[in-house]
Design a protein that fits this description.
The structure is a single chain. By secondary structure, the protein is mostly beta strands.
Amino acid sequence: DYYLQDVFNGLCLDGRLGTGNVTLQTCGSDGTHQIWLEANNDPTSSSLTDQFNGWQLDGREGTGNVTVQKPDSDGAHELWYAS
């Protein structure tokens, strides 16, 4: 379990249900949606799950399209890797 904290501004990734719901907030301001669980799906990628609601960080093409969705909502946009 850990926070995903932006190195530049020190803010934490905060996940909420619904479209356009992933924002940056002061770390600890809402601990329920800022704690993420990492699950290694294969040697190169992981899914990131909001501990509070069990939904996964989901990335879509376009502006402002990072959300949290039910696990495996489409099987393609929930996997992440660090580069």
